[in-house]
């Protein structure tokens, strides 16, 4: 009798152990959304700019999670994308300006993830590619991406008539680009049977200023754009159409998929000068290393994001690589020039002491570094500029034009030392 009692107790204890054993979390789906040429002045949630688009879906992503206020990209599209997909600074990949070509020997994020997670993710890039120069013979799928469909170069001449590349072939699409990219992304996601990583790169709100379908925006009955018209309503309409389509994509997900998806939304570089708003000068936005050109929106919410509100960590576009890799299950917090900020989703800490960006084209060669308070810009021709971002966040007063204080001198020396370390 006593033996039988002990056997029953053992069975019950074993059963409890099984029932309370932690079931491993399912790998999260990763939805990474990139807006094109959209700075802080063109989005709600920021004090920059006075005219804002109606973006309830993007706003919801921001409010549900973290808004990384000190996120640095590059001044143009290609180097930002190359830095994120390789985790390397532009001088290492030689992609430091728009239309420059990424070497086909580079290990891209999607391939890196699957190499280190036993191919646990389905991966796709939909939308703007723009890291293979003008070489349209390259199929992004040869880089280890499962599926690619979108526009190969930096922009389209017509949002309603454009070259669609898919599975290595090119056709002409007459659907509004933002809608088409969303439909392609949604269709691919529906077919997946394992966790997915969708890199969705809209070309909106990049020029040209073409009127979106009426149901997608709130800018009224806009006539076809011409140079005599104010471009701002057209720019805002393009952002609103993108937000409308983001909402459609999210609503197309099953409840289970949506609850298991982490969403990362960002802008790739500053606003086009013709639609720039105060407090930025028109030479301080896209194509510049000033804050209006590289300090971009970055919101993260969804599965695994426990914190909410503004986070002031110094984040760079290279950090997207390690962060998404770690989200996918790769046990890494740093690789190449990339530091994962995944830990910030649940705890408040410091990731970087410095952030770096650069540019190089036929006319300009320059680089910049910041410690969050002071920012140093160095030009290859010997020119230098330095700003105190704490009291001069929009870089109106170059403190190198006057005698530096002891603290300013020391800060400049520290920035120069770190800059030398990064670039050598």
Give the structure's gist in a few sentences.
By secondary structure, the chain is an alpha/beta fold.
Task: List the defining traits of the structure above.
11 helices, globular, alpha/beta, 10-stranded mixed β-sheet, disordered N terminus, 2 domains, Alkaline Phosphatase, subunit A, 4-stranded antiparallel β-sheet
Can you walk me through this structure?
The chain has 424 residues and is of the alpha/beta class. It has two domains: 29-353, Alkaline Phosphatase, subunit A (3-Layer(aba) Sandwich); 364-423, no CATH class. Helix content is 29%, strand content 21%. The chain is built from eleven helices and 16 strands. The protein has helices at residues 2-20, 56-64, 77-86, 90-93, 109-116, 177-190, 232-252, 255-259, 291-294, 319-327, 406-423; strands at residues 29-35, 66-72, 122-128, 147-151, 162-166, 169-173, 196-201, 261-267, 298-302, 309-316, 334-335, 338-339, 355-360, 365-370, 374-379, 384-388. The model is unreliable at 1-24 (pLDDT under 50).
